[in-house]
Write a structure and sequence with these properties.
The protein is α/β, with parallel strands linked by helices. Helix content is 49%, strand content 16%. It is built from nine helices and nine strands. The radius of gyration is 16 Å and the shape is globular.
C-alpha cells in the first residue's frame, strides 16, 4: 500500500480509533469491537504491553493498522516491521520522520505550534496530529490554514460525539478517538464498544 492510498483511506474513514489497552488481550478486543462497529483505521499505541501480539492478531483483519505513541526511530522501525501502515507520535521527531520516509510509511506527528508544523512539513509529513486537541477550538484549523493552506490536521484528544462533526466541518482530515472507547469497554465490555463505534460512524454520516 502506498502513502497516497493510506492517506486516502484515513481521509475516507474520518475516524481513527486510538487503542490503549491495559494488556494485549484488551487491546485486541477493543480493536475488533471498533472495527465491527465500522471504524476501519486502528492505531495501536506502544503504551500497550506486548503490543507486538496485538499486531500479530490483527494483521489479517480488514482494517488499516497503524502505530501510536511512537517516540523514537527504533520503535518506528519495529512498528513498520510489525505491519503498521502509518505511524503516529505525540510530538515531532525528525529521526522518526526519516525512517518512515525511508519505508514509504506516513508519519503523523503531534504539533501544536506553527514552528513545529513547518518543521514537520519540511520533513515530509503530510498530515499533522493536533494534540491534545482539547486545548484548542475547531476554528484553530482555519487559523493555521491561513498562513499554511497546505497543512492537513488530525485532531486527537478530547474528541467526542458532541464535537466530532464540528472538527470535521472546520477542516480536519480525520479525528482520533480513544478514551471514549476505553470507558465504554470498562462499563459495558465488547458490545458497548461496538455500539459506540457505530454511533461515531452514524454521526459523521449525517
Amino acid at each position: 500500500m502506498s502513502k497516497f492510498e493510506t492517506h486516502a483511506q484515513i481521509a475516507a474513514s474520518k475516524v481513527v480509533a486510538v487503542i490503549r489497552g491495559s494488556d494485549a488481550e484488551e487491546a485486541i478486543q477493543l480493536s475488533k469491537a471498533a472495527a465491527e462497529g465500522g471504524i476501519r483505521a486502528i492505531e495501536l499505541t506502544y503504551t500497550t504491553p506486548n503490543v507486538q501480539k496485538v499486531f500479530e492478531e490483527l494483521q489479517y483483519e480488514d482494517i488499516l493498522l497503524g502505530a501510536g505513541t511512537v517516540l523514537d526511530p527504533e520503535t518506528a522501525r519495529h512498528a513498520i516491521l510489525a505491519g503498521a501502515k502509518f505511524v503516529v507520535s505525540p510530538h515531532f521527531n525528525k529521526d522518526v520522520a526519516r525512517i518512515c520516509n525511508r519505508y514509504g510509511i506516513p508519519y503523523f506527528p503531534g504539533c501544536m505550534t506553527i514552528r513545529e508544523m513547518v518543521e514537520a512539513l519540511e520533513s515530509g509529513c503530510d498530515v499533522l496530529k493536533l494534540f491534545p486537541a482539547n486545548d484548542f477550538k475547531p476554528s484553530f484549523i482555519k487559523s493555521v490554514n491561513g498562513p499554511l493552506p497546505q497543512v492537513k490536521i488530525m485532531p486527537t484528544g478530547g474528541i467526542n460525539l458532541d464535537n466530532i462533526n464540528e472538527w470535521l466541518a472546520a477542516g480536519a482530515v480525520a479525528v482520533g478517538i480513544g478514551s471514549d472507547l476505553n470507558k465504554a469497554y470498562k462499563t459495558g465490555g465488547y458490545e458497548a464498544v461496538v455500539e459506540l463505534s457505530k454511533q461515531y460512524i452514524n454521526k459523521i454520516s449525517q
